[in-house]
Amino acid sequence: MAPQHHGGFCALPSDLRAFVSEHEAFKSFSGGEPADEAALQALAREHELRVLRERRHWAQLRNRYAADSTVSAWMRTYEPQEWP
User: Fold this and answer.
1) Could you report the average pLDDT of every consecutive run of 10 residues in the chain (84 residues)?
2) How far is it, in rounded angstroms, from Cα 49 to Cα 11?
3) The whole model's pTM is what?
4) Residues 12 and 74: beta-carbon distance below 8 Å
């Protein structure tokens, strides 16, 4: 089930809802079919940069809402599992 359909999503702060929506869209984006090795490498670099930005943003959101037990509990259940 998409995170947007999990209980409590609509009550979350708008910046957190926006992050989740953008992250879910990013997970399904393939970047297209690279034309050659250079394009493949460029796509891989862009993906890594995007993941680093998302991790940094997620950490900021965790810190911002750490004192709110309802929001932080929702975040713990959602935390992106694909991040090592």
Assistant:
1) 70 94 79 80 87 93 96 88 63
2) 30
3) 0.79
4) yes
Q: What's the distance, CA 62 to chain centroid?
A: 12
Indicate the angle between helix axes 14-27 and 69-78, nearest 10 degrees.
0
Token readout for 33 is 């079919």
Domain locations in the chain as residue ranges: 11-78
Tell me how far apart the alpha carbons of residues 44 and 47 are, in angstroms, rounded to a whole number.
5
Q: What is the pLDDT of residue 14?
A: 96
Whole-angstrom CA distances from 66 to 15, 32, 62, 74, 79 are: 14, 37, 6, 11, 14
